[in-house]
Amino acid sequence: MSAPARAVAPAPPSGPVGAVHALTVGRVQVRPKNIAGSGTPMLWWTLTARTWSDWLPVHVFVVEHKRGTVLFDTGQPLASVTDPDFYPRGPLGWVYRRQARFEVSPEHDLATQLAEIGHPVSSLSFAALSHLHQDHAGGVPQLASTPILVAAAELALLDEKTPQLHGILPEHVAPPTATFTPVSFTPTDDPLLAPFGAAHDIHGDGTLLLLPTPGHSPGSMSLLIRRPDAPPLLLVGDATYDPSLLPRAVVPDVGDRAVQLDTARRLVALQSLNPTLRLLPAHDPNTLTALVAR
């Protein structure tokens, strides 16, 4: 595997938001329906799929801010490719392996890369998770006492009898040491946020806003980064793998299709209100280029 690919958008000339880093913490191949669905039941395409996507990146993001640095998502753990007992046994484990396969190397280690860019785990003010699937929350065990923001609806899945049926592996993404903080979204009258109508303001200054983007999972959320002298950025997790699919109402065949389509409409509306907005998915090969584009 190649060395980790990274990109950084430099700090704007003014405002509290500093540089925004994108790190690659592994690669993934998924089934085509994972990217562009058509309403096919997930179990059916899991059973019948014969092809894989190209290798796609697994990205996490580091957002510098005068009030504290924020990590968005934590990536896929190395153990998923080295530990034969990482996935559940039996049919459920077979489903996990049929839907995605990963490449992760020691060089992609989250804590190592954070230290290399000057933001060791100990320096983080918050982490925020788009959702609790393994390739977004797999690095949680490395975060020690860092407060981790997760949508309340997503955290509630951990209390269900079988969160594994929602794609969540608690033993890998929710260790006893994790400091989860449930996120509730507060109504807002900001006209530029009208498609969502609610947000969670991480630092209380309107620059780092968590938005509810459910569908892929019940508590999926995205991070809107507003910079006064630079284009706004929206880190969307798995709301889409390819922003060009959203205006065509093409969403993954994973999760609640009706809710995903509603989220897609809201994202398109948000972009129409904010024409310079850049959507940065976790698995889009174009994310690094889009982050640094002028």
Any chance you could write out the topology, listing elements then pairs?
Elements: E1 6-9, E2 17-30, H1 32-35, H2 42-48, E3 56-65, E4 69-72, H3 79-82, H4 90-99, E5 100-103, H5 110-116, E6 124-128, H6 134-137, E7 147-151, H7 152-155, H8 170-173, E8 179-183, E9 186-187, E10 198-201, E11 208-212, E12 221-227, E13 230-237, H9 257-273, E14 278-281, H10 287-292
Parallel strand pairs: 4-6, 6-7, 7-8, 13-14
Antiparallel strand pairs: 1-2, 2-3, 2-5, 3-4, 9-10, 10-11, 11-12, 12-13
Notes on the structure:
This protein is of the alpha/beta class. The chain has one domain (6-292): Metallo-beta-lactamase, Chain A, CATH 3.60.15. The chain is built from 10 helices and 14 strands. The protein has helices at 32-35, 42-48, 79-82, 90-99, 110-116, 134-137, 152-155, 170-173, 257-273, 287-292, and strands at residues 6-9, 17-30, 56-65, 69-72, 100-103, 124-128, 147-151, 179-183, 186-187, 198-201, 208-212, 221-227, 230-237, 278-281. Strands 1, 2, 3, 4, 5, 6, 7 and 8 form an 8-stranded mixed beta sheet that branches. Strands 9-10-11-12-13-14 form a 6-stranded mixed beta sheet. Strand 11 and strand 12 (221-227) form a beta hairpin. The radius of gyration is 18 Å and the shape is globular. The two termini are 30 Å apart. The model has no long low-confidence stretch (mean pLDDT 96). Keywords: Hydrolase, Metal-binding, Zinc.
